[in-house]
Amino acid sequence: MTSRGELVFGGGSNAAYGYGFSNATTYQGDDKPFAAILHTLHRYLPSTRDLRIAHRWTGPVALTMSRVCTMGVMGKCRNVYYALGYSGHGITLANLAGEVLTDLYSGDASRWRGLPFYQQRLLYVPPEPLRWLGYHAYTSLTGRSPRRSL
């Protein structure tokens, strides 16, 4: 909430972006994504229906195939630190990622070992053009994005 009692609200939405060849993201360019996000907001918090929204945003949702984020370090010299696949929980998980990556960098990440997101191996994603064909075949046959059903 702003100091004037308005909401600042947003999030990712499958309605906002489409998947193009070679991981290209296509913006749908209308108010449909915001309507979808607003519907979700009102479903969870019905009392927000009468509030004005001061600022809004949307964007693609970064998912892993397992829908579990992963954070860790890799590379021959163990100098590539990563955090990805926040699955729509970006603001919260970005804060956690800061802690995890800081601990990894300092050499003491013992408190994170054994947690499902720590150094998780990512599931295989087929290369293009198989990825693009699979995504669009699934979407055409079912009428929904595979990102919603994983």
Written account of the structure:
The chain is built from four helices and six strands, in the order βββαβββααα. The protein is an alpha+beta fold and 150 residues long. Strands 1-4 form a two-stranded parallel ribbon. A two-stranded antiparallel sheet has the order 2-3. A two-stranded antiparallel ribbon has the order 5-6. The chain is flat. It starts with 6 loop residues before the first strand and ends with a helix.
Q: What structural keywords apply?
A:
flat, two-stranded parallel ribbon, 6 strands, 150 residues, two-stranded antiparallel sheet, alpha+beta
Overall body shape: flat
Helix and strand content put the structural class at alpha+beta
Q: Strand percentage, roughly?
A: 15-25%
Q: Indicate the mean pLDDT.
A: 84
- The helicity comes to 25-40%
Number of strands: 6
Instruction: Going across the biggest sheet, name each strand in turn.
Output: 1-4
Distance between the termini: 33 Å
Q: What radius of gyration results from the CA coordinates?
A: 18 Å
Profile the largest sheet.
Answer: 2 strands, parallel
